[in-house]
Predict the 3D structure of the following.
Amino acid sequence: MNSQNNHELIVSGIHLELTPSLKIFVREKTERLFRHEERIVRLRVELECDRNPATGMQFKAKGHITIHGPDMNATVQSDECHKAISMLVDKLDRMLQRRHQLFRVKRNHPHAVELNAAIPKVV
């Protein structure tokens, strides 16, 4: 699914049938991430359903952001699929905000570099 800003969103399901309404829900939730960070190349969301009789139905949402720089990965688990998606998007949003804040601090506070070699004097 390509949007107008050349962002790619991939939604996949593991042991889970992806309905069109679920895909639309993921797309609407992840639009916030693309608005906050324009350098996102690809966002992959994997939804997994674990039907363990002992623990009940558990949904796991995994997010992988491909961005200029180090990629970001997050995983959340919940008993409802929509809740897991919302928690995942919130977690990825916090990660992007923290990354942006760290880059801004580095940009505003450059550090000095020490050179071990002697610099020749110009006569």
